[in-house]
Amino acid sequence: MTKPLITHLRHVAIAAPDLDRQLAFYRDLWGLTPVESETGVHFLAAEGSPEQYIVRLRKDDQKRLDLVSFGAASAADVDTLAARLAQQGVRIVHEPRKLGTPGAGYGFRFFDGDGRVVEVSSDVATRSFRTIEARESIPVRLSHFVVNSDNPEATVDWYVKHLGFKLSDTLCLGARGDFMWFLRCNDWHHSFAVARGPHVAVHHLSFEMRGIDEYLRGTGRMLREGVQHIWGPGRHKAGDNTYSYFLDRVGNCVEYTTELETVDWDRHHPSVYDVTKPDFIDQWGTANQMNEFVAKQQFNDPDHGVFVAPPL
């Protein structure tokens, strides 16, 4: 089966009133590197990633997701996808054009079925990056991005139909039914996922660490610093990756992870994992219980950016 025109996850842009505390969190605690700041917008990179930046922070009167950005292999692919989406009736925010963000590039933006802004770009200049050293507990790259939807089945169908993502696995809560869907655009088990929630919102941003030791050191650093701990450390069944979840300074859930599974694009067959079975929610058995507190934090606040394009 042909892979989608989207190649990978680039970055996530979020906004909130308390920009200074957000910046301090991601820079001084979480381990990202500021690469550029202009007119109050901050771009932060992962030392182990060639992406110009993986998180963009902006001050806004309301907490919101500005956009999620994916890569494409070429300008021709960007144009092809833009034309296809327009023909399918997808609301375009702006047509393909040269981008003014760090690394420039060529891209366009559109609303997904829930009203999030999605950007797809090509020809973005890469940045110098390095191998993360042993015991260095900072992110290597942005691993995946998960969103909440009050109509998740439709959201999953939208990403499969319009963007060519493929379902990797699903989580269910016993007889209560499915509640999370993992989608891939390359050989990583998931770069994007959709969770059932009471409203459209950010579920979590996930950051890949060098290995188990670095993942645990990062987890321990957050605990020692008194960062609000949500869930973990543990190891998921779907994706086989580790997890430790915390809250950033405005209540978005962020995750340290490592060893996310890679799968064969054509041969991987989706499974449904019932997380009422202990081994399916945490293979190690080390995490705190998944309960209403954990779920409530991951539901997050309603996104004020739904069908509202960010100012930049």
TrEMBL record:
Residues in VOC domain copies:
8-123, 141-259
Query: Which Pfam families does this chain map to?
Result: Glyoxalase
Q: Which PROSITE patterns match?
A: VOC
Organism expressing this protein natively = Streptomyces cylindrosporus
Indicate what this protein is called per its UniProt record: VOC family protein
Query: Which InterPro entries did the record assign?
Result: Glyas_Bleomycin-R_OHBP_Dase, Glyas_Fos-R_dOase_dom, GlyoxalaseI/FosfomycinResist, VOC_core
